[in-house]
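Entry for the shared binder. Reason: the reviewer on the internal report wants the predicted structure included alongside the sequence.
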Amino acid sequence: MPSSIPEYFALFGFEPRFAIDTDRLTRAYREVLSQVHPDRHARAGAGERRAAMQLASHANEAYQVLKSECARAAYLCRSNGAELEGPGAASVAAAFLEQQMQWREALDAARMANDTAAIASLSREVAAERGRLVERIAQLLDTESDYPGAALAVRSLMFLEKLGAEIERVAADRGEATAAATGK
């Protein structure tokens, strides 16, 4: 049965793998976009303009998915039948959820204490864990072809991405508050 998931890798001349050269992806994206950009077809008929607009939209969507490690991994999992959400999805390990709670509690405590050093330390710790998880996902997808296992790891990565973004917001808020307090 053919997949209803659009093919993104082939659009840019890549094999469907997690490990990709993001600089090459950007160059390929720009090349594709230069060929299908609607402005290039401004004098064409309505059908050709509409097709160009659809291709440009598809290229933009494909690029956004493939340039993000998390989105790319999720895309590869879904493309190979491994669900990330819903009834067929595996649960994130209890130990990981417990670690998440500890990190969130540490972030709240650091925020309340306005402890920028603790926030920076937590940021480094979460980034290191994210790096280890990305390496594991690469192995599961590209070496082992373990899409259900990768889907579980991708769900954990999604948690870490959300936590990392929250830590960045708190750090930015603290930086602004510090700059305002010091007049810098």
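Summary line for the report: The chain has a mean pLDDT of 88.
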